[in-house]
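Aim 2 progress update. The chain analyzed this quarter is reproduced below.
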Amino acid sequence: MWNRVIAGRKTIQSRPLVVGAAVVAIVALVGVVMLAGGGPNPAATPTSRIALDSTARATASLVPATLAPTQTPDPTRAGPTIPPVNVLLRPDQWPDPRRPFPTQPLDWLNVKAAGRVALVNGKLTVLPDIADPLVNPITGVHVPDKTVLDTSWTRWIIEVPGSGIDEKGGYFSNLSYWEFCGNGAMTVVLWYWQQLTGHPNVTGTEGYFLDPYAAEGVPWPARGPQIPPNGTYWSGSDTVSGFEAHGRGFEMYLAMAAQPPTWQSTGYALWALDGKPLYPSFGTPPDNIVAGLNWEVSGYDQSIWPTAYYSFVFPADPTLARDLTQAVTIDVGRDSVPVLVMADSFDLPNWQDGAATPHIPHSIAIVGYDNTANPPTFTYTETCGRACNRRGGNQNGDIHTIPQAQLVKAIQDQKGLGFAW
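Predicted structure tokens:
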């Protein structure tokens, strides 16, 4: 959870700055991108990486999908059929100088806003400018009005609790572990990418994970976590919490060990501020989530990393309700991958306990929708589990349904931050 205010800095929701109106891309992107397979090696010592070439980054491109042979173009649906999603509204943000956010060129953002960045047959693709983004480019079938992804594995992606024993029997007490909901939700999202593309290695990542203060270039906090000398050990599945939990090794890799190119520090979570260690961690801010998702789904390909798939929509978006529904329908219904939402826990049904419900920025993964229900609904997974949220009958492995309007309210409430799609 990214639930603390950075004193003396501009916060995520200060002074919206409209960069421009999203329009249809004026340049057709061409070329082929082959994604590398494989997964992270959290036990490896971080090595220096070549900085991204700005020209390659701005011109990285993908090929249109091959349309179904039986698909007949419908002139009434030709060209863009949805209003562009507002990915160009960027409020002032406090930058993390050790984890710079990569540039997403305007032409790519326009293509993304039009719903033309797609995952087709396991490959990242830009659809032709005449394509209907709500039509499956392979089958020619319109995206369904309701669907839910398979959650038999992802519903058991439950975050490591703040204290207990790890898989090797080592005792730990670490307040930072309570702040990893962003990494838990990223783990859910990326499991579906692994099934569709072969990477990243969500199911097989394992090893010892140590809070990365050394990589951050700051001393270990004086009253820091109590953990074994080498860190705590986690793998693809464990039963140390009394049930079979999934993806904890990958969750820890995301929070502590991941390092995209140009980053001086490891982990998508924030571990230091102004040269001083943070304990507990600040959790994972929106820019790091987008950068992290794109680095992982790109197959660690530096040439396409900044523009692999994901962009962010902030609460100040005046068409947030429409944009969230469109984003979920495209990502879940067409591409079979979740949307990651950073919402205010106060408005989530599994957190509600009357006035006692806390206001905390909390990340969840939308894995389904029903645009025909009355009212329309979203379905989401909850990686927090009972250990960090004992309110409202919340149980481990639960799948939750929420009215779409209520989730929009949760994004726009005082601790909501937006969504990555």
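The longest strand covers residues 361-370. Residues 181-197 form the longest helix (17 residues). These observations will guide the mutagenesis experiments scheduled for the next reporting period.
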